[in-house]
Write a structure and sequence with these properties.
With about 575 residues, the protein is mainly α. The protein is about 80% helix and about 0% strand. It has two domains: about 325 residues, no CATH class; about 210 residues, Up-down Bundle (Methane Monooxygenase Hydroxylase, Chain G, domain 1), CATH 1.20.58. Helix 4 packs antiparallel against helix 16, helix 13 packs across helix 16 and helix 18 runs antiparallel to helix 21. The radius of gyration is 31 Å and the shape is elongated.
Length: about 575
């Protein structure tokens, strides 16, 4: 066989070229239309069927089911999608990924698109070097598209010619003539290739090229496609390793969905194959004697199309069967990956829906309830900061700080969503009182979010002090804890004032309380400067200490303004 190491490297390089084109096109598409896709994903998942359509559309656009599922996992991690919603999108992503196979089977082997690839790259050159990010992304998108078909052309020319190298067929026949064991073998091959390439689309392209050049028969190609459906789930599961429990559950649902489909296809392997043959014959392609292995050489041109049909039919049937079992599937993955109390911190609005177009007088009440939840979460974040101050083990400190970071992300998202909702109320046809309440709540939400910001900053200071082995001394801790005692009262008052509408607020009293805290801060600052001069502690520790009690004063100020806006809300 005249197939050298250089030829093998050409084959690997062609695959790498194809992969890079796929990666470039996918990433640039996400840059060009990323925000729009995110809004579509967030809006079109109110039920499982809309979720499926959304998954199909997004995956067809970005040409990567892995990218879609990773995006879904990140959205579940942020609380933008529920577990049930995410399963619908994942089902759609499996159907959407079949578009790649159709593009290649219909165009890649019949139309020499690679001939237009270099002119396309030439036309996109001014865009690629543009200073404007949007234009640059469009240019990269065109280059990526051209590279995909150039890579496919290189792949096609790099594989060994079967006619001049018959030994290759005999090599493959050693693994393709053992009945069901051969099917399992190529199932494993498809899984491994997809794991390595991290792209089911690229793995499918490689399988289609192998079919087209007669490397493998239809049966073995089908087994590889089934393996790709398992291999593609690894990307989402890797992305979920650092995510919360609900995101891990979404990734696991993707794995279970695909594994179930593969098991079903393996049990009914021949009926599935005959179904594809029937579809091919229905379009008068007359391929029953070529796809069953009797005449592989004659079937080369038809195999990619048949494989594309199989891939699509498999994913559609699997989705149609399991779409009715989304909730049971969600319950199953919840049992496999259990959540513990406070371990699964997600963003979720309980009372309002920012997608509503019509508003009435009850909208303000819904928003107020949501702000109650927001403040309750912020208070929990505040308590975590106090716990961090007392924690001596760095491992536990890291864990608590990670939760504080998560709560900060949630606070930012809640601020954005609630203010968006309230702004829509002020612009809608509601009473003057409701509009006034909405305006007061916008200011209130901003202050609650600022309280969470202060908590996060204090947590960062504690991490900086303890991780760099510059902890506060006993006197510093005593002063900070004394300040916390004062802050506890004002934090509690903000939460209670929100929960109990009838609770009276006395602005003058609260202002005096705020002023007393500021006086305490000034005293601490004065003592701090004296201690620095005396050399009671190192300057770097002193900076962290000063930053900390100063931020306590800022937090007290935010609480004062929050109470003022609650008073404004109650009197609107």
């Amino acid at each position: 066989m005249n197939y050298t190491l250089f030829d093998l490297l050409r084959l690997i390089g062609s695959l790498a070229f194809f992969l890079f084109g796929m990666k470039l096109m996918s990433e640039s598409l996400q840059k060009v239309a990323g925000d729009k896709m995110r809004s579509i994903l967030g809006a079109m998942t109110s039920n499982r069927f809309k979720g499926i359509v959304t998954g199909v559309l997004i995956t067809a656009i970005i040409q990567s089911s892995s990218a879609t599922t990773v995006m879904v996992v990140s959205f579940v991690n942020a609380g933008l999608l529920s577990l049930v919603q995410s399963i619908g999108v994942i089902m759609g992503a499996n159907i959407g990924t079949t578009v790649t196979a159709w593009l290649i089977s219909l165009l890649g082997f019949k139309v020499d698109i690679s001939a237009f690839a270099l002119p396309l790259i030439g036309l996109s050159l001014p865009l690629v070097f543009s200073k404007q990010a949007k234009r640059r992304s469009v240019g990269e998108l065109i280059v990526g598209f051209a590279m995909i078909f150039m890579g496919l052309s290189y792949l096609n020319s790099s594989v060994p010619d079967i006619n001049s190298n018959p030994d290759i067929l005999s090599f493959i026949s050693n693994y393709s003539s053992s009945g069901y064991w051969s099917i399992l073998f190529f199932l494993a091959v498809g899984t491994i290739i997809t794991l390595v390439l991290q792209s089911s689309s690229a793995s499918m392209a490689l399988t289609l090229v192998m079919c087209y050049n007669g490397w493998i028969g239809f049966d073995m190609a089908v087994a590889m496609v089934l393996g790709q459906n398992i291999g593609t789930t690894i990307t989402a599961n890797l992305a979920a390793l650092v995510a919360n429990a609900t995101a891990k559950q979404a990734a696991m649902a993707h794995l279970l969905f695909n594994v179930f489909g593969v098991i079903l296809a393996m049990v009914f392997f021949r009926p599935f194959e005959n179904l594809v043959l029937g579809i091919m014959n229905a379009f008068d392609m007359n391929l029953p004697n070529t796809l069953n292995g009797q005449s592989i050489q004659q079937a080369n041109a038809a195999m990619p199309l048949a494989l594309s049909i199989y891939h699509t039919v498999f994913n559609i049937i699997n989705t149609l069967l399991l779409v009715w079992f989304v909730k049971p599937m969600a319950q199953l993955v919840k049992r496999i990956i259990r959540t513990h109390e406070e371990d699964d911190i997600i963003f979720k609005l309980n009372y309002i829906n920012t997608g509503l177009l019509n508003f009435d007088e009850l909208s303000a009440l819904q928003a107020r309830k949501e702000i109650d939840v927001f403040m309750h979460r912020t208070k929990k974040m505040y308590q975590m900061v106090k716990d961090m101050l007392q924690e001596s083990k760095l491992k536990n400190l890291d864990k608590t700080f990670a939760r504080v970071e998560k709560y900060e992300e949630i606070a930012d998202r809640m601020d954005e969503e609630i203010v968006t909702f309230l702004t829509q109320i002020t612009r809608s046809d509601v009473s003057k009182k409701t509009a006034s309440q909405a305006s007061a709540m916008i200011k209130l939400v901003s202050r609650v979010e600022s309280i969470s910001d202060s908590c996060y900053l204090m947590a960062q200071i504690i991490m900086g002090a303890k991780s760099k082995k510059k902890p506060f001394n006993k006197e510093m801790n005593h002063n900070i804890e004394k300040m916390f005692e004062s802050l506890d009262k004002v934090i509690d008052k903000v939460e209670n004032a929100l929960t109990e509408k009838a609770l009276p607020i006395y602005p003058d009293t609260e202002r005096n309380f705020r002023d007393r805290i500021n006086e305490e801060i000034e005293e601490l600052n004065f003592e701090h400067l004296k201690d620095i001069k005396k050399g009671s502690y190192k300057y770097k520790v002193g900076i962290l200490y000063c930053d900390f009690f100063s931020e306590q004063g800022v937090l007290a100020d935010h609480c004062y303004h929050a109470l003022k806006y609650i008073d404004e809300l109650n009197n609107a």
